[in-house]
Amino acid sequence: MELDNNILSVIEPTIRPTEIELQGGNEEDGGDKATKSFGADIPRILINGYLFEETDLMSFRLSIGINKKYPTVSVTLKDSQNLFDLDQYPRDGDVITVYINSKNTDTFKSIHMDFNITSLSSPTVGLPNASKEYSFSGTCKVPGLFSEDCVLYEENTSLGHLEKIATDLELGLATNIDTTDDSQIRIRPYETTLEYIRNVVNSSYVNENSFQTFYIDQYYNINFVELNRIFNSENVSIESMQDSFSSLAKSYSEETGSEDNDNIESKLFLTNNLQFDKTSNKISQFALKNNSSKVSLLNGYRRVLQMWDDLEETNPFEWEKERLVEFDVESFTSDNMRDVEEPLKGRRGETEYDNHTKYKWIGRMQDTNIGGNVHLNHKYSILNNWQNLQELDKMKLIVELDSFNPSLYMCQKIPVMMFIYDEKKSSVITAKEEALANKGVKVEDKAFQAELDEEPLENPIRQDDFTTGHYIIGGIEYIYSDGDQAITQRLTLLRREWPTRANNL
Q1: Are residues 418 and 441 in the same domain?
Q2: Burial class (CB in 10 A: 0-12, 13-18, 19+), 455
Q3: 34 in Cβ contact with 207 (< 8 Å)
Q4: 440 CB-contact burial (10 Å; exposed 0-12 / middle 13-18 / buried 19+)
Q5: 8, 147, 198, 397: which is deepest, by most CB within 10 A?
Q6: Does a structural domain hold residue 269?
Q7: For 207-225, how does the pLDDT look when each residue is reduced to its tens digit (9 = 90+)?
Q8: Which pLDDT score, from 0 to 100, does residue 349 have?
Q9: Nearest of 65, 381, 397 to residue 228 by alpha carbon
Q10: What is the SS3 assignment for 378?
Q11: Structural domain boundaries, residue 208
Q12: pLDDT value of residue 92
């Protein structure tokens, strides 16, 4: 089964968050028009049966990501009714219930989750006119996720064991992996369920061209994802971009008097093009985050894996020497890398890339006949998965959208088209292209420019070659602040190869 860029549900979650009773019906049965707008523009917050008003929400942030592993939330609320501290004030075990309406429930799921309250800041003591504001932080509530236990899991693959643990936790399982080649008995020696999941995934092996990660998403699914497959999946053209829906920002829909503002047929891409203002395709702000040198200095450009291998066939007179095994582990590059791109692996013309190597002793690979109990690629997988995930932390594009886009999900490959509206910057791009062409680089090998020249979008002066391209979504934040018209979305976008700099050639 060819999954590539599609992360499909294998098991549906059975866990159920605290129900929110709505005027006109609950969120499960559709309800009236007022019900359908509930939580669409402003997240709704329920704590111990106390439903805060929309106007009570001062700030909100729901975060998920590859590095976070499970959803977290931070909320600041004011108690306009001044009733919250009578009986609903949280005790041990109480939760924050969050509801965000997808606006298009026929196509996209709404977000409905319970969060364990991990911190709470109450109104200031001693000030008679102090604002009744409460600040909460929380982690998604999954009973048993942080519990420790000692369990022996009968021989199975990492995928099979994750299916078992997802079922036990009443979580769903979503993946782009059809099978893994890592069958073994697995032992959970008094560690938390989360740590066990982490260890299973860290040592998982699909094939020699794969690396895996996991995270729990905002719909109660464990996502077990092979990332190299997604990076190597086809980079779509403008014509072949996935069909989806876009929505208009609330302020714009009110201005135009549009009632059906959430079901606008659109292609699935992100852009700062002014033509897409006030839509959920539009990037309102963006910034680059660079950790390249830090990551490279800590991890090297490659690692030499060292281990004692009992499985190695040896000359009986040189068995000690031959069973001490070393081999290189280096992060992957994409099969579809364009001529104008290069990986973040050192500066051209310098030798540090060849020389900056780290070594990692990972212990003994034991023959099952003498007590070994791991799959053949167990040691390699731990280092390979880790090395490739570290590579993704080198440089990221952080973007904020004009409005919440429910079409977007974690580890999705998404086309991003960025444009420059400054004449001076445009002339710099022209000069760069000329310099690259003079050095033999195919400057016409761009992500989208050729197609844009044939079917130009309105307004753009030039394509921003550096930030335009195909990215994988590595983090999603749903953000709201008092005074905003609606929920906004902040994305962390990951990319392994970036455009070549002319003066480095």
Answers
A1: yes
A2: exposed
A3: no
A4: exposed
A5: 397
A6: yes
A7: 999 999 999 999 999 999 9
A8: 72
A9: 381
A10: helix
A11: 145-230
A12: 93
For the chain, which residues score pLDDT lower than 70? 1-4, 22-35, 124-131, 243-265, 311-322, 365-372, 443-447, 449-460, 502-505
Residue 385: φ, ψ to 5°: -60, -45
Same domain, 28 and 134: yes
How many structural domains are present in the chain?
4
Domain boundary residue, one of 348, 366, 391: 391
* Nearest to 416, CA basis, from 406, 424, 408: 408
Q: Report yes or no on 57 lying in a domain.
A: yes
The Cα–Cα gap between 383 and 245 comes to: 40
If asked whether residues 492 and 362 sit together in one domain, one would say no
Domain for residue 4, yes or no? no
Question: Do 95 and 107 fall within a single domain?
Answer: yes
The DSSP code sequence of 102-154 is: -S-TTTSPPEEEEEEEEEEEPPPTT-TT---EEEEEEEE--TTTT-EEEEEEE
CA distance 292 to 271: 25
Please report the sign of the dihedral spanned by the C-alpha atoms of residue 458, residue 340, residue 497, residue 2. Answer: positive
Backbone CA torsion sign across 189, 191, 193, 197: negative
Residue 474 parent element (H or E)? strand 469-481
* Residue 33 shares a structural domain with residue 94: yes
CB 475, CB 492: distance < 8 Å: yes
Q: Are residues 279 and 404 in the same domain?
A: yes
pLDDT of residue 501: 75
- DSSP 8-state assignment for residue 248: B
If residue 227 lies in a helix (H) or strand (E), which one and from where to where? helix 227-231
Structure tokens of 276?
């897409």
Identify whether residues 380 and 410 lie together within a single domain. no
**Which CATH number fits the domain that encloses residue 188?**
3.55.50.10
